[in-house]
């Protein structure tokens, strides 16, 4: 049985990924950070699907915490076949209001988290000459977004990281890709006003925002056999928002 480790699995896109992988027959190592109740309810849902699943608490910005999670998951499941680096935070602020602490936290969770998790999980994939890594970036990491300079920079870093690592580990049988979601219906966007949401829908060729399940479908595809010749790519799941 294949095992996937998903960070930020307690809510939103990560949760939808956990359920989608479970339906594909994967065992699921689900990482959560602060929301234990949501993580426990995910575990119940996974178990109801007959999925072999385990929860791990970790702050992806903290290397020691990630090392402990990865070691525990590898011990429990024997191997990790797919890694989904999904955990992330967002914040809207004028650039002139950003503090050094805002910048440091954003970069250490959104970009540092991807680095720490890959550093711990990749060696096992290299040993087995097989593995799939999918990093969740954002369309703002491609285009940049006003009042989200630190978020956009962190997500652009994830794209550069993905392209570089894909080149380095391709010869070892490991693929590394990015999914760049557009505006997705999760708690991350709970602060958007109805007017802002309507404007975003209006700018989207498919005339709506996306669902976490639609992002999860792309992630599962990139981890599956049908994506075996795809690496170093950034797949936008944005209803056409950014265009070609
Ligand atoms: P969300 O609903 O806010 O969920 C965020 C998840 O990340 C939660 O499971 C949370 O865990 C976890 N997390 C946050 N900080 C963490 C940390 N330091 N260590 C470990 N886990 C942490 O967000 P989402 O909308 O699903 O977003 C998921 C990913 O997609 C993020 O990387 C985000 O940037 C990206 N994305 C989202 C959108 C969108 O429109 N929603 C668009 C583009 C990209 P706890 O709840 O347990 O604390």
TrEMBL record:
GO terms for molecular function: oxidoreductase activity. Residues 2-186 form the Ketoreductase domain. PROSITE patterns: ADH_SHORT. Keywords: Lipid metabolism, Oxidoreductase, Steroid metabolism. One of its GO terms (biological process) is monocarboxylic acid metabolic process. Pfam families: adh_short_C2 (PF13561). The keyword Cytoplasm does not apply. SUPFAM superfamilies: NAD(P)-binding Rossmann-fold domains. NCBIfam families: EF_P_mod_YmfI, PRK07231.1, PRK12826.1-2. Belongs to the short-chain dehydrogenases/reductases (SDR) family. PANTHER family: 3-OXOACYL-(ACYL-CARRIER-PROTEIN) REDUCTASE, 3-OXOACYL-[ACYL-CARRIER-PROTEIN] REDUCTASE FABG. This is SDR family oxidoreductase. It comes from Anaerotruncus massiliensis (ex Liu et al. 2021).
